[in-house]
Fold this protein.
Amino acid sequence: MRRKEDPRLLTGRGKYAADVRLPGMRHAAVLRSPYPHARLRAIRRDGALAMPGVFAVVTAADLGDVARIPLRMGQRSPANPALQPPLARDRVRYVGEPIAVVLADSRYLAEDALERLDVEYEALPIVPDALRALEPGAAVLHDEAPGNIVDRLVTTTGDAAALAAAPVRLAERFTVQRHTGVPMETRGLTAAYDAATRVITLWGVAKVPHFNRRVLADLLGHPEHLIHFIELEVGGGFGVRGEFYPEDFVVPWAARRFGHPVQWVEDRREHLMATNHSRQQFHEVEIGVERDGRILALRDRFVVDLGAYIRTHGVVVPELTAALMPGPYRIASYSSEALCVLSNKTPTGTYRGPGRYECTFVRERLVDLVARELGLDPADVRRRNFIPPEAMPYDVGGGSLGQKTVYDVGDYRSAFESALDALGYEAARAEQTAARAHGRHVGIGIGCVVEKAGLGPWEYARAEVDATGHVVLYSGVASVGQGIETTLAQVAAAELGVSVDDITVVHGDSASVPYGVGGFASRGASVALPAALYAARKLRDKIVRVAAMLLEAAPEDLVIDGRRVAVRGMPDRSVAFRDVARAAIPGPPGMDPGLTASHFFEAPKMTYPYGTHLAMVEVDAETGQVKILKYVITYDVGKAINPMIVDGQLVGALAQGIGGALYEELVYDDAGQLLTTSFMDYLLPTAMEMPVTTVARILEETPTPLNPLGAKGVGEGGSSGAGAAIANAVADALAPFGVMVRSLPLSPDRVLALIRMGGPEMAPHTPNARSVPGNP
Amino acid sequence: MKQRAIRVTVNGRTHERTVEVRRTLADFLRDDLDLTGTHLGCEHGVCGACTIVVNGEAVRSCLMFAAQVDGAELLTVEGLADGERLHPIQEAFWEHHGLQCGFCTPGFLMTLYCFLREQPDPTESEIREAISGNLCRCTGYQNIVTAARAAAGSLRAGAS
């Protein structure tokens, strides 16, 4: 099944955010703070305004009394402290914070003018990271967040005394580095204002267009129905694109204020400092086990570095970290405490597998340490702890996103054994032994994952046949390049008895799709597709009902084929969709007029897809290079609507997971400057870094009972086990050196440092992994 | 700002324009000729999304000035298909799911267009090396490599 999207994308006809051209369009460039923390004493714009081609300069003073950008999810704290304003008014808190926007006749002129804006800064003491933010005497970033703490999330389940009573206890510290989604298309937005109709049109919106339209309407004080959002092609999302950012307010504000279309396209340097960062956490974790490896208790305390402001995701990433930390294992006693802390760095949000990439790394490293401590095969320790399929649905204790964590369905052991089988685990161990005998450092690492997907609360779809007999499916979902048009068409086509090519899919346009939630949280297959299924089913009923009237036949005797409705076995007694559509207005008495049907599919419970990652790596002990020899993922998606797309999601997510494990890091120096502002510094995996032997096994052993398709969602599981599996493999490879892998990424310099430090496996933590204050 | 008159043939059509000397070739194609199929992913020559063909060589159009292509023959993604008939490389990407969001795709297609003319029967590792200057954040490259091999096969079959 080839994708419907591809012909236009392959020929350069797809229109992305930066491809909009409007007459009279002004180009925006954003002045960003070079200081991590400073008071703004004055902004002088005369020099910039005097330049030819410069049209306007916008600062916070021009915006007036505009509210700060609200949360979209993760709403817990009553006061919503530390939200970000669209433009900094009197203080900046991270390098890259927007201060002013220049509008000019071209981007070139707008950037020239940025250099002529004269801003007076008064540098303030900085909080370089979340751990130092908690130290006594640290500068306070926001008055409403004393001690720089915005929230403390606590989860407890089971007997709190179980840990102390466990026969074997291990404690460790783990850190996951700051890194993020980095789609190949940077953000971009074009806004136009029609003074006659007062309609504001925005091109280049993404992910959650309907929610953002409401936010914009509120912030602008503009009627929602006079705001038109248009999505265009989306060059990758990964969680970061499409949240409501400062520019999402300023660009349409400027279009309305000045009456000219305004286009802003982020450059890559801006992207790396302005778009959400993610992942940075510091864990102190303790596990209690039986001598046979059975886990009795787990206690985690962690600090999450949220950056300088709370953006739209609130504290949802730490919440998800805590909720999914137990993973596929039965752990009777579990407690978690998360401190959500501010620092003078770019604000953070979700990135593909939010919380799960982090917690899977911590948990799976710990399980390997248990195996090592007890002299067991890490595979056997996992076998002794999996939640069995008959325990489903399984209440983990704790929750996230307003739901209890209840695994819907799963056979974790089966997905695990399938991965071992795909790798040839025993043979791989033998190969490892042989390699070691030749002085090669080969290691095998396991990362078992329980993901979460299918976040509701609902999705909307509408299916129609137009007066020319063409079928259109409207969906409230958003594209992030994943091929959702194709799978929506597949589901609707199967229901309607037409071909996929017969269906036009429309999404991301607020004028033709009145309701929608969007494209995130692996919700396409499990929430958007069922909505399409039911809308198409309702439409089919109407088609048949009207055709029955026209053909004077019983509805149950009718069949649909080739956009015609015929009496079964009598192809000459048939009627075309176009005639059915015309007869449907107003149609038979009692029927809602028109061949149109909509459906809201409600999804009050999330799905929990799962699987296992296996990495076989070789470490060059002289250069510190990690080469992935083989990689295996098994992933149970319940039902793969389009296996080609599912496979693409798994392997694509894996590339990002490998990036996080080995290469990617947003590095700040002690002065709060972001050092990784280009692709020479922030390293994405290329085709050379991806393992040549990659096996992605799609499992459909346990369809979810939560929707009629059985599909759980697939966007994230290819990533979330990669940090764990690769770290475990590197630790395994370097076991002869007695190294302890506590942090990511395992870049060559880090690997060499580990080898140099060496020593016994449970030696004190590395100096760069700071202690979490307040913890023993 | 200093201007220069240039004459350039893009996808078989000749254009005469006056450009600022600092105007990048990518911006010239996208803004002056409205050929927005050439994408900008980094504007510092790493990601390869803006790759086009200049006088038979794959180049990064973000790293060249429009003024440098005076008299040159250019091919962009818009010129790859023959009318509605896709080029075999495009066909192979479609068939083997060699793209997801599609943003980096034009750069990969143009890189491979040049590479497969130089090396019509490449090994997998030669393909990986050939595309190592193009970043993709969606696919994990596996299907791009598969598509490139398939494209090489159909180009060879077409040539014989």
Notes: Chain A touches chain B through 54 residues (CB under 8 Å). The first helix of chain A runs from residue 6 to 10.
